[in-house]
Amino acid sequence: MPRDLLRNAPRLVRERGLDRTLIIDADVHHISVIKFLGQFMDAPWRRLFETLPVESLAPTDPADRRVAGRIKRPPIPSPDPTDPARAAHALVADLARIGVDYSVIFADDLLTLSLHPDRRFQTAVARAYARWLTECILPQEPRIKAMLYLPMVDPDASLALIHEFGDAAGVVGFQVNLVGLDQFYVDGCARVYAAAEERGRAVGFHSTGHWPRFPMFETFLGAHAISFPAFNAMCLINWVWSGMCERFPRLRCIFFEAGAAWIAMLMARLDRVYRMRPEDAPCLRRLPSEYMAECFYTVQPLEQPESAEQLRLLFARIGSGQVLYASDYPHWDFDMPYSLSRLSFLSRAEREDVLALNAIRAFGLRREELSLVEWKREAAARAPRGACVDENLITEGPA
Amino acid sequence: MDWRAVCRCDDVTAEAVTVVEVDGVEVGLVRVGGTITAFENICPHQAGPVCDGEVMGPVEVLLDSDRRMLDERFAAHRRILICPWHGYSFDVATGECITDRKIHLRRWKVREDDGVVYVTVPGTRAAHRGQEGSNAT
Could you say which DSSP state residue B93 is in? Predict the structure, then answer.
């Protein structure tokens, strides 16, 4: 019988003092849902989903993310039509063991949906995914929050999706998947961003390491190394130059999964060229880096330079108040929450900001509605009076 | 020296790690040449159960005289243990990470006697943690 691959995690969470600290994971992937979505579609699309093999539904990528079986994960149950939330509950159980109290999820196989050439297909899948989440998952599993997929090739469909599902409980925002976008739709999608802003929902921009989009690389490693920061940077460049932060000042933007180093590079580069050619970006009233400093970033997979001082400088440039903890579990390069506890330059309060408070701001959550998972609550209850870390908002202990 | 009997010598092979538990601490045993090495089952990268991983040769490249790539193969002279969480790889002879020499697996003393494998218990968990800081990313 295979051994439990997560068995070290709870002890590490306790030893790092995170068992009494609220942790919100901004980026969790529940894998392989697309075949399951057919039952949430209208009849013609349902028929298509019932007849096509799964490899014809999602754009494929030949990359081997498990390195010929060297990297292993606990098995995740496939979606069960008779118990749609089963896989989500199992994922939450795994994440609770690594200390995560709330997870913001996004479907793995929808990360490449924007590559699908048929905009009607994208829209049908996006709507089915929103239905599945809002009907079957979010009402049953309060520890899961979700960002809905926006088919940005069709702004009208995206807008309709926001109107139909954007106010559902547990929906904290919308995802734009960058890997398939050849053009960044700014004005055409202004109504979409306005609708998200009106509802106080975040908009996330998420890439993936899709190897076929980078045919110049002979290895998946090459495509993976540059795909995330490249797509995030291209999107953010368009976002800043188009003055979106001026046009939608209350819209909270989150850029996912590209580490931290690219952000400082882009800030420096955009400021330099803007000072010479402000005419090219007439919407801007401040330096590009000042707008970028108002966006949120998940910095997984966090770089591991020789010196922690290099990371300290990156965090100082980005602002630790804008960084969200994200595991990216169960992907091959996921980061454990306690890996952040080793960033000694962060104060305890800053670390707790990264682990939860920043996410509460970014996703518009209510702190008073959030609680630790059961095993952490029990650990907090067992702690002697006064043993809780401090009176900080996000640390729980006996009253 | 507090030696504990943990398994039979025949239980330990060169092909996979045998994981045993000593005072609540998991230790992985693997045969390297004629001897056995013992590592604590915690990856110094992000604390994954490294000894649950695969043992194999690292991949090496063969170049021809023009330094073109001829082929790839598993190296025969070296064995590595690969953490199943993130793929960090460690030389089973030394415990050293092959991509980051600053980190290494914690080794335990081990001996074989009359067909039985013994390991030492090198102190408390607190003592382990005290050494972990410099060994972590």
Answer: T
ipTM for the complex shown: 0.89
Interface residue A333 vs chain B (CB under 8 A): yes
Domain ranges of chain A: 9-382
pLDDT at B17 over 90: yes
pLDDT band at residue A2 using 50, 70 and 90 as cut-offs:
low
CATH of B3-129, one of 3.40.50.1000, 2.102.10.10, 3.30.300.10, 2.10.260.10: 2.102.10.10
- Strand A323-324 with A296-298, pairing: parallel
pLDDT at A394 over 50: no
Task: Write out residues 100-129 of B within 8 Å (CB-CB) of A.
Answer: 129
* A70, A304, A334, best to mutate vs chain B, most B CBs in 10 Å: A70
Contacts A69 to B, Cβ<8 Å: 54
Shortest alpha-carbon distance between residue B109 and chain A (Å): 22
Q: Look at A342 and B46 and tell me if their CB atoms are within 8 Å.
A: no
Q: Indicate the domain borders of chain B.
A: 3-129
Q: Are B47 and A70 a contacting pair at CB < 8 A?
A: no
A5 dihedral zone (left: phi>0; alpha: psi -120 to 50; beta): alpha
Which residue of chain A has the CA closest to B40? A8
Contacts of A155 (CB under 8 A, 6+ apart): A185, A188, A189, A191, A192
B53-77 pLDDT tens trace: 999 999 999 999 999 999 999 999 9
Would you say A347 and A390 are in contact if contact means Cβ atoms under 8 Å apart? Answer: no
For domain A9-382, the CATH architecture is Alpha-Beta Barrel (3.20)
